[in-house]
Structure formats: C-alpha cells, structure tokens
Design a protein that fits this description.
CATH architecture of the largest domain: Orthogonal Bundle
Largest sheet: none
Low-confidence stretches: none
Number of helices: 8
Distance between the termini: 36 Å
Helix content: 55-70%
Strand content: under 5%
Order of helices and strands: HHHHHHHH
CATH topology of the largest domain: Arc Repressor Mutant, subunit A
Number of domains: 2
Radius of gyration: 17 Å
Shape: globular
Length: 139
C-alpha cells in the first residue's frame, strides 16, 4: 500500500491508512458489494476466442511487455494507452479504441466491462496472476 501512495505523489499518514483499511473493506462489502471486483481464477477462453486477430495481438503484446520487467506506474500507463493507439488518428478518434482495449482487459481479468483504474490495477496486482490470465499462447 505504501508503495502505491508514494508513487501517486499524494501526501498521506501511513498509520491512518492502516487503521482505516478494515473499515473500508467492511463498508465495501456491506454497502457497495456491486462495486467490488473479483479477479478470475482461470482464463476467459470463450471471451478471448471471440476477439478479432488485432485484439488478440494487442493482448499478447501487453502480456509480453508486462513479462519483460517490473514497470513503473507511468510506464504501465503509457503502455496500456499506447497499445491500441493508432498514430494516424487524433486523440478523440483513438479514445474508442483505447476504451475497447480496456473493456477487453476487464473481461479477461474479472468478467466485467469496467473496473478499477487499469494502469494502477496492473501496477499493484500480483504480476504472475495477471500474466496467467493473459496467457493464451495455445490460441
């Protein structure tokens, strides 16, 4: 948790955060259950099989880059926004492409069209788990 806060460059009190985490978890479970995201245990093969070849290449490219080395939050952010980006299109024209890429990743990770802020999620979540959920080498 401390690493996330330092990287975010926000000021914080570590003891205050530690004391509040149990209360936050309880509140989420009781009042906001639908907002909790649960990571899949297995590959979402049926969803992956219905993706276009371009989308499959994007997923494989992301997995390859994430497997190379530990990345900073900024590097992951540049990566996930950059993979679906077409350099010949404007920012506004690229937004639907990026949104679609994020939707695909949320489906592969947690069977949802939306989720937590993707770059931060990829930065903090167990890297081996993410790599396993993107491992479609036999497809």
């Amino acid at each position: 948790m401390e690493i996330i806060l330092k990287e975010s460059e926000e000021s914080y009190n570590p003891s205050s955060i530690e004391s509040r985490l149990p209360m936050i978890k309880t509140w989420l479970a009781k009042y906001n259950e639908g907002k909790m995201f649960v990571l899949r245990d297995t590959l979402n093969e049926p969803y992956y099989d219905n993706l276009s070849e371009t989308e499959k290449r994007q997923i494989k490219g992301l997995r390859s880059k994430l497997a190379e080395n530990k990345m900073s939050l900024k590097e992951i952010e540049l990566l996930v926004y950059g993979i679906p980006k077409d350099k010949n299109l404007s920012i506004d024209e690229n937004k639907p492409r990026q949104r679609r890429f994020f939707e695909i990743l949320y489906q592969l990770f947690m069977d949802s069209d939306t989720g937590p802020r993707l770059p931060t999620f990829l930065w903090v979540i167990n890297r081996d788990k993410i790599l396993s959920l993107l491992n479609f080498e036999n497809h």
